[in-house]
Amino acid sequence: MNYITIILCLPLLALLILLWKYVELKSKMEQRARQIFEEWQERELESTSKRKAEILFEEWKQRYEKEVRKDAVEKSKAVIAGKVTEHLIPYLPDFKYNPKDARFIGSPIDLIVFDGLDEGELRRIVFVEVKSGKSTLSKRERLIRNAVEQRRVEWEILRSEI
Question: Structural domain boundaries of the chain?
Fold first, then answer.
């Protein structure tokens, strides 16, 4: 009777082992499938996000390109107007010096005025920087202003043997 029970239990034990292996393999397959799906989903979201960002950027560019171009043109006009004003300022009514005494340099400052030189009596030498609107002095312009205000200005003669 013992042998018969063992013989009858062996197929049942084998069936249980097969069932357990089946459940284990099914679980591993589900985990691997989930992992593959999540990797795919992440790649898809990334590429979708990139495409969405590109589309949004193109829409923004189309919407604001005219404004950006217009702003660039306006700034360019302002720069050109400033350059022209720098040259013409000695001939405008608000310029308090004789235009014949003014010399345009352009950089690092706009003008040097030899006040009274045309009349034969030099009263002073004035460094002039022309600004419009709310523009301020650049770092280089401030350095020059400070040197003049601190009277760190000299006269030198260079002789050439050429």
Answer: 96-149
